[in-house]
Automatic annotation (TrEMBL), chains A, B:
<dbReference type="InterPro" id="IPR000485">
    <property type="entry name" value="AsnC-type_HTH_dom"/>
</dbReference>
<dbReference type="InterPro" id="IPR011008">
    <property type="entry name" value="Dimeric_a/b-barrel"/>
</dbReference>
<keyword id="KW-0804">Transcription</keyword>
<dbReference type="Pfam" id="PF13404">
    <property type="entry name" value="HTH_AsnC-type"/>
</dbReference>
<feature type="domain" description="HTH asnC-type">
    <location>
        <begin position="3"/>
        <end position="64"/>
    </location>
</feature>
<dbReference type="InterPro" id="IPR019888">
    <property type="entry name" value="Tscrpt_reg_AsnC-like"/>
</dbReference>
<protein>
    <submittedName>
        <fullName>Lrp/AsnC family transcriptional regulator</fullName>
    </submittedName>
</protein>
<dbReference type="InterPro" id="IPR036388">
    <property type="entry name" value="WH-like_DNA-bd_sf"/>
</dbReference>
<dbReference type="InterPro" id="IPR036390">
    <property type="entry name" value="WH_DNA-bd_sf"/>
</dbReference>
<keyword id="KW-0805">Transcription regulation</keyword>
<dbReference type="InterPro" id="IPR019887">
    <property type="entry name" value="Tscrpt_reg_AsnC/Lrp_C"/>
</dbReference>
<dbReference type="InterPro" id="IPR011991">
    <property type="entry name" value="ArsR-like_HTH"/>
</dbReference>
<keyword id="KW-0238">DNA-binding</keyword>
<dbReference type="Pfam" id="PF01037">
    <property type="entry name" value="AsnC_trans_reg"/>
</dbReference>
Length: 155, 155
DNA sequence: CCTGAAATATCTAAAAG
DNA sequence: CTTTTAGATATTTCAGG
């Protein structure tokens, strides 16, 4: 799974705009269209490119409230943690979820329509699990950065 | 900026796979290719679709450490906060950054190669700003959920 | 590995109902 | 809104260096 500078340039360009024609990509990196096509297929096959996705404007869909939540659990029992993680991941309004080491156990990022929806989700996800000791809510006043791209710099 | 069920279905499909041919989209939602084309153009023009992007596998690029950081600032002066936000947003390893109300002022999600890179970035971003009072590091043991899509359900 | 050309598929716009 | 048409663009394969 080695990535040469051509691959990295292609990946950077595709993160920026996945619709760039392969011919245009070829011009940018000085490769033929066919070479670009072959590389992209390989990158997708190896799983370096996971998928192509449309990024939507949350506000246009009525989702304009982001909330960061820190969760502390009662028990670290593996089966309980697994169940929690599954329920978190299954919630469409949970945009990110991390199981972390430190002052708390989980950090979740919610994207919700309004506070009412947020409260309803906390009741559903946290109280029904019977394993949440406490959770702390941080309401985002400003989404300074979202939808960032993965750095493609060489090691 | 009204979205009917057709639009929502198209948006959901495009978040899942931005490369789905418009003919296939049309079959899925029972619309002609031409109708799909028209709707997609309108959705892009209105800014509902912000961009098309390739989602990469961070591990394949040598980025496999996610760190959540909570930052408290010394001063809430607007010009200082603006400057901090700009420097945070400009850092490629900062995947998300939120200015929040609650126990801390900023929450950042870093995607880094290793701890060494993380420490170097904190020095650069936090110490050089001269406005960070404290910061708390939460290392992700498991990325339970990332790269989620925006819910497209109707209000 | 690459290039360049040919074949296939897709997109886009226009015309007409 | 639909379908159909036609031409432009993009993708993919293949021959050959």
């Amino acid at each position: 799974m080695k990535l040469d500078p051509y691959d990295r340039a292609l990946l950077a360009a595709l993160q920026d705009d996945a619709r760039t024609p392969q011919s245009a990509l070829g011009e940018q990196v000085s490769l033929s269209t066919a070479a670009v096509n072959r590389r992209l297929k390989a990158l997708a096959g190896e799983g370096v490119i996971e998928r192509f996705s449309a990024q939507l404007n949350p506000k246009a869909l009525g989702y304009d409230l982001t909330v960061v939540v820190e969760v502390k659990v009662e028990s670290e029992r593996a089966d309980l943690l697994d169940q929690m993680q599954r329920s978190f991941a299954a919630c469409p309004q949970v945009q990110q979820c991390y199981y972390v080491a430190g002052d708390c156990d989980f950090v979740l990022i919610f994207l919700v329509r309004d506070m009412e929806q947020y409260v309803a989700l906390t009741r559903k996800l946290f109280f029904e699990s019977h394993n949440v000791k406490t959770f702390k809510t941080l309401v985002a006043m400003n989404r300074v950065k979202t939808g960032a791209t993965v750095p493609v710099d060489a090691a």
